[in-house]
Structure formats: C-alpha cells, structure tokens
Amino acid sequence: MKKILLGNDAIIQGALASGVSFVSGYPGCPSAEIGDNFGKIAKENGVYAEWSTNEKTALEAAIGASFSGLKSLVNMKSFGINVCSDSLLPLAYTGTKGAMVIVVADDPSCWSSAQTEQNSRVYAGFGHIPMLEPSDPQECYDFTKLAYKISEEFNTPVILHTTTRVNHQKAPVIFSEVKRDSQPKVGNFVKNPHQFSTMPPRTLEMKKELLDKIKKIKQIAEVSETNQITGGKSKIGIITSGISYLHVKEALEFLGSTCLPEGRDLPVLKLGFFYPLPEKKIKNFIKNLEKVLIVEELDGYLEKEITVLAKGANCKLEIFGKSVLSEIGELNTEKITVALAKVTGKKFVAFKTKKIDLPKRTARLCEGCPYWYVFPVLRRVAPDAIFGGDIGCNMIANLPPHSLSDYMFAMGAGIGISHGVSKAVNPAFVEASAGRQKVISIMGDGTFFHSGIAGLINAVYNKSNPLVVILDNRITAMTGHQPNPGMGKTLMGEDTQELSIEEITKACGVKNIKVLDPINVQELESTVKEFLEKGEISVIICKRICALLAKRQAK
Amino acid sequence: MEKTFNLILTGVGGQGIITLLQVIDETAFVEGYDVRSSELHGLSQRGGSVEAHIRFGRKVYSPMVQNGQADLIIALELLEGLRESAKAGGKTRLLVNEYLLPFIGSPAKEEIVKDLNKVKSELYLVPASQECKDKLQNDVVCTLYLLGYAVGKGLIPFKKESVLRAIKNVIPEKYLDLNINAFKLGHD
Q: Which of A59, A163, A390, B141 lies deepest, with the highest CB count within 10 Å?
C-alpha cells in the first residue's frame, strides 16, 4: 500500500515487516514517536514494547531479548547512545542472536536538544557497528528492513542513524502492511556463555571475530543498492548521504534551472551505508573526477575517509567539504547551492532574508504548569543561591522570565554537578551553612528515574548539602507525555507498581525530605528556607500533575 | 501544476500546526502529487515559534522550502506571520490569522498589522480565530478555516473535494464535523 507516513512511523512499519517482537527505548526528540506509536499497536501485533528507565536499561533489555532469540528494536535520541554505550560496545563483541536494530536520532541545529549538537556517527567506527543512513520515510522503511537482514545474517546489532529532518519528515511510502498474530512470540534462551560473556582472553578472540565480520559486511556494502550513483558524466562529483542527499538533488535542480545548466549532469554518489563504507565503490566514483564535494551535516567524517581513499585512487582530486559547508547547524538546499556554486566556479547570489527586528518567542511553561509555582519561590527565597538545572520541561527554568539555572548539562547531571559545587564551596572543614553559597538543584520525575538517583546517592554518601527540588509532574512531559516508573502504568497501558520518589529518596539515605503540592506556596517557601540551613543534603518533592495531562484526563 | 508548490506554516507551539500539515499533506496525496513535509516536535512545541514546511508537485526531493521560494506562507498568529515575512520572496503570498498571542516584550497588535501591511507581498489578513470562536465556539480549528480560505481564494492549488476527502482521512471521527465546518466557513 501507499500512504503518507512520518519517518518514525515508517521505521515502525519496517520493523513490523521484519518480524520485530521486542521494542525498548527511552523517549527523546526526534525519536519518541517510535516508542509511543509502538505502544499503541504492540498488543495487537504480538509485540512487547516498553519505555525503559533509561537508554542503557533499554539496550540491555533488548540484548536479553536478542540472546533469547527475539528480534528487537531499540529507539533513542542522540544522547541516548552515550548513556548506553557502556553496554553497546561489548554487544558488538558478543554479537546478537535475535536480530537487533538500534535507532539513534540526531538533532542537527538543536531544535529539541539542549546539551550538544551531537553527531552520533562516531559510534559506528568506534564500536564496529554497521550504520545505515536513510534520507526519507521510504528509506526509513526500506533501510530498517535491510538493517534486520544484515543483523540476522551477521549476528551484529545495526544502527539506523537518522536526523530530525528524517524522523519528522512526512512523505508517501510504499509498504506492505503485515498481518501479525497477536500471540506474542516466546523466546528461548539457549545457554552459550562462550558467545554471550565478554571475559579475557575470549574478549580478544571476539574482537577478531568482530573485525572479520565487518570485512564481510563491507562486501555487502560494496554491492548494496543503497549506495547508488545518479546523474551524468561531469568531472565534478558529489558524495552525500541521509537528508543531505535530498537537499543536494534539490540544489542541482535549482542550479540547473538558473546558473548551472549542466547541474543535472553532476554525478552524485548517495551512501546508504555509513559504516562500513563501500571503499571500492567510492574509489571507482572518484577515479575520474577532478573535484568532489562531500555533503554531510556537522563533522566531516566522510570527508576524512574519502581524503584517505583518494590518495590511492586519484591523488589529484580536489576535495571540498567542510571548507565550503559549515560544521554547525543542519544543511539545507540553499547552503548546498552556495557550496556547489563555489566548487563549480559559478556566480550565485543567495536570497537575502529581510532584517526584521522582533523579540524572540522562546519556549515557555504551559498555562497552569505546576512549575510556575516553584521557580519564582526559589528565585525569591534564595536569590543568591547557585542553581543546578536539568533536562526536561524544567529546562525552561533557563529562559526568561525565570533565568534560573547556573549550569545545565545532561539527564541527571544537575544533582551530580551540584554535589561537586556544594563540596567545593562548603569544604568539610568549614561549618556547613555559615555564610557559604547555597546550592539548589532541580530535576523532574522522569530524570530522577533515568539517572538522578545515582547522583543523589553520591551526594549522600560523600556528604554534601545541596537542596534538591524534584519537580514531580507525574509524567515524562517534554517528550510527549510518556509513562515513567512513578506513575503505575507501562507503555502498553498495563498497571504496574508505582515507585515512590519519597521512599527511594529515603532509602538513599536522605534525612530531610518534604513532599508538598507547590500550589501551597507558603509551605514551599518555608520549607526551602528551612532546608537551605541544613548541613546535609535535603530534598523537596513538589508533586503536582502536568497541566496538559490534567486537562487531557478531565476530557 | 508545472512547478513544485512551496508552503510554509508558522505559528506558536500548541496552535495545531501539525494537524494542519497533516491535512495539507493528505490533500496533496489525494490529488496525486508527490509531497514531502518537515515538522518539529518537542521543545519547539512548548509555546515557542514553530515553522513547518510542505512541498508538493510532480517530483519533490527536499522537504524544506528555500528562503524566498515560498508560494504561500500561512501564519496562525500575527507576530509569527511578520517574523516569517522575512523569508517572503517576489512570488510569496501571505495569509495571516488576525490573532495575537502576546508575551512580555511583544509589540502591540496595531504595530504588527502596520508592519505587515508594509511587507511587499500580497497580504491576506483574516480573522480566522475570531470567526471560529463566534460561529463554531472553538478557535483551535482556525487552522482549517485558513486552509478553507486559501483554497477558496485560489492561494493553494487544491480542489475543495480533495481537502474534504483528506480531512476525513486524517481527522478523528469525534472532531470531523467541527473541522469540516471550519474549512467550509473559511472557504465560503
């Protein structure tokens, strides 16, 4: 059938068609719809789907399923791969049993990402994990299927590397809707510690097996149709992949109709495989070229590889890449058009946007958001305190009118850093609260369960005294309202034990704990004042439901 | 249609841009065009400026409209309409909902309207939110009203029947009548 699909939904269809039966992940933008929408259709398709507590537990869950023979899909945003990398690298060594595809969605231009403009491609070569890069929803579908095929044949996890403009692109997709049995597939764990345990000296044997495997996959890449050449016989060529390919084709059409009539003659090598690269194919492509433009977003990984390949294949080749295309921000047709004009020596004047000086409309807390009660109190009661921010809706605390956070890093990092600040400004040999700088660290309930607990334990164990304010809005809100362990519901809508943040905090050894509804501003205010005087760590749990969720539940 | 039609939607997160985009994508599909669109989720949806792109025609590659190349910009909000007008080129037409979502430091409505009128583009200023509120008791569907207006005035090359079919294909049963009524209200 042919239907308009979002890139993320096309990945779901590709996974269903490939026989996936175990889905795990952690919600983030731009990948969240993969888990969200799997949650809606999992049962009827005999699939198990979960939001795990973080990307590491998500990957590990899938590893367990894979070792039990099930086909799995793991989904996460860019930073997720950092979180799970500790288990990802050994997985490449052990290999998979049931096929596994890991979707990692980067966000060039940081449309919905705070911490860095990460390029997750680095993990492919670093971990020796095959990586495919689709350009559009059709390829999201096709490449997901191919990824399962490769995983199945070579017992390796395969990464499907996407970007915001691919995940959140809609286009018609031709796909076969599979009728699946609602009876879930039962795995069978066959003991094989020789393969599933990394332990020297076996680890080094495994490395050898892995490198041999990648050599074989390289041969698949050499003949794969996903690495395709289009265009004519011009001496100036383009090598590109992912979303950039679509912009390149558009730029060539645009130039072809304006200042570069031969534009459509430029040969384009589109790489579906980022790792392993089809080196022979690339060498053949550049052999007779005079110039080549490498079009890739962010860092010039392909450019580096191709520069090395050119030494053997065509040492006179002029290579353009990051010299004409920025390493910062996503690419688009216009930027590529300008680069192409430079490389082909044509005059092209880009459209100048008019200068309109308007105040920026930044993201803000929703109407009725419980955080509206918290941020002003913190500012008022402790104007001189040092504020540790965290990820989630509460990062709006960084923006006006709050402008609260003094530092913000990654999920759960707020408390970790606040502990260090607290130790640094309140050394143990100084009386704890005597005129020293106070430290307040905020985090949401989702972050608490993701990685906040570890930081909390460190602060208790190593005796620092920040005030931690946990903003428990009863859901993982920012990424589109996903359930978390504090809610008593799973992704598939089943009831589960509701984990109490208060009890966990207590069990971590925190002595000063207060649970309150932040709408009681006076209670919040007096508690903040009281806890700021404490010589040891204290925690206020501000418990009030997300306003959007409350509205939805009332309907 | 000879050339690819380039459309930009703009507004404030939470105004319903993605639903509007879905209906337009589906209409283009129903009419047999190749279509690609690009939208943003997450942080950008939390009350900030949001922009979505749709391109349809015989063969479309990039899902994003180049600066200056839009045939039509539909703005769900005045200030965002003015902001987006920076990207308007010679052929761009602007369809703007006469509706302001003010924030601390935002200019007054009269000022924005004055500046919009200075933009060298064909401007259609339409009280879509007000009309929907008055006649349908719901201003969220101003999106469909604006689409109806665009189709009625020939600002977008769609047949009315195709849009109605697309609405039925993508809008949940519960809200179907409301959306159809908003579309018709804007169209006629």
A: A390
